[in-house]
From TrEMBL:
Signal peptide: none annotated. It catalyses: adenine + H2O + H(+) = hypoxanthine + NH4(+). The record marks H213 as: Important for catalytic activity. Substrate binds at D271. Catalyzes the hydrolytic deamination of adenine to hypoxanthine. Plays an important role in the purine salvage pathway and in nitrogen catabolism. The keyword Mitochondrion does not apply. Its cofactor is Zn(2+). The active site is at E192 (proton donor). NCBIfam families: aden_deam, PRK09358.1-6. Zn(2+) binds at H9, H11, H189, D270. This is Adenine deaminase. Belongs to the metallo-dependent hydrolases superfamily. Adenosine and AMP deaminases family. Adenine deaminase type 2 subfamily. It comes from Streptomyces fragilis.
């Protein structure tokens, strides 16, 4: 049995495995620019951000109907459960679908059906977080929030993702204020490829409660001290950082130093179909290649539940935390 954990940084569009991509392409009469599952898998050995994004958007074209989104989320939840995920807070990118003529309702209803059945089918509780594409305009983000209004009973919070450099958090001040007024929780990607100052800005201007990635906070000791003092969680994605070259090799990852500094770190998978692994694979990787011992792995699992948006269900959080403490690591 794998270590129980929560996944807090997961883009549902990034869980589309080649087999499902071809199945949905056939169902919807969409032609993928790859001849076979193997050819698509080979393309996933991309070397840089642009080739990743080209592939990512090409594959997304197969997602057309509610059922497609339901199947996508259900496939992710099954995989996640097998790797010990007990709770998942799932990002989706409505603008990427709206731009293709797929409506907000199609996306949210489809994802929502898989999430609603997740506890019964997979034993995984869920939350849904709507992300804005930061390379789109602030006005587009505001329009997206408006389109989401009829579905806010199924959306826990908002996030900010895609190309970071040149798109500082302050650009989205108004939409974050509007979301806060609607009672939505707030997170944002910051300090992945962008500077440590974007992390500070996300906290001060956007009021985020959790920082996605945030690894470049290590360049600013005063910021580290603040993140420790205020217990701000960071959702790190080690395998993603290697694939997108935030670090050259996993052995260079700052995770051990970040934990040593007292930061509230979590380990997540980001876009697992593209970055070489799901949550459990990321845990295995940091154990094997960063030498994290059982105490540190248990700390990461504990942190993942502490950082979860489970304030509306503290009983559940307590149950998950008890599972973490009771967990016995297998003899290796
Ligand atoms: Zn991400």
């Amino acid at each position: 049995m794998p270590l129980p954990k929560a996944e807090l940084h997961l883009h549902i569009e990034g869980t589309l495995e080649p087999e499902l991509a071809f199945e949905l392409a056939a169902r919807n009469g969409v032609t993928l620019p790859y001849a076979s599952v193997d050819e698509l898998r080979a393309a996933q050995a991309f070397e840089d951000l642009q080739s990743f994004l080209d592939l990512y958007y090409a594959c997304m074209a197969v997602l057309r109907t509610e059922r497609d989104f339901e199947d996508l989320a259900d496939a992710y939840l099954r995989r996640a459960a097998a790797q010990g995920v007990r709770h998942a807070e799932i990002f989706f990118d409505p603008q990427a679908h709206l731009a293709r003529g797929v409506e907000m309702g199609t996306v949210v209803e489809g994802l929502g059906r898989a999430l609603a059945a997740s506890e019964e089918n997979h034993g995984v509780s869920t939350r849904l977080i709507m992300c804005f594409l930061r390379d789109e305009s602030a006005g587009s983000a505001m329009e997206t929030l408006e389109l989401a209004r009829p579905y806010l009973d199924r959306i826990t919070g908002i996030g900010l993702d895609s190309a970071e450099v040149g798109h500082p958090p302050v650009k989205f001040r108004e939409v974050y204020e509007a979301a806060a007024a609607l009672g939505l929780r707030r997170v944002a990607h910051a300090g992945e490829e962008g500077p440590a100052s974007y992390v500070t800005e996300a906290l001060d201007v956007l009021g985020v409660e959790r920082v996605d990635h945030g690894l470049r906070c290590m360049e600013d000791p005063a910021l580290v001290e603040r993140l420790v003092r205020e217990r701000i969680p960071l959702t790190l994605c080690p395998l993603s950082n290697v694939r997108l070259r935030a670090v050259d090799v996993l052995e260079d990852h700052p995770l051990p130093a970040m934990m040593e500094a007292g930061l509230l770190c979590t380990v997540n998978s980001d876009d697992p179909a593209y970055f070489g692994g799901y949550a459990g694979d990321n845990f295995d990787a940091v154990r094997d290649r960063l030498g994290l011992d059982e105490d540190r792995l248990r700390e990461l699992a504990r942190n993942s539940f502490l950082a979860s948006f489970l304030e509306d269900d503290e009983e559940r959080r307590a149950r998950y935390l008890a599972e973490v403490e009771a967990y016995e690591f297998p003899r290796r």
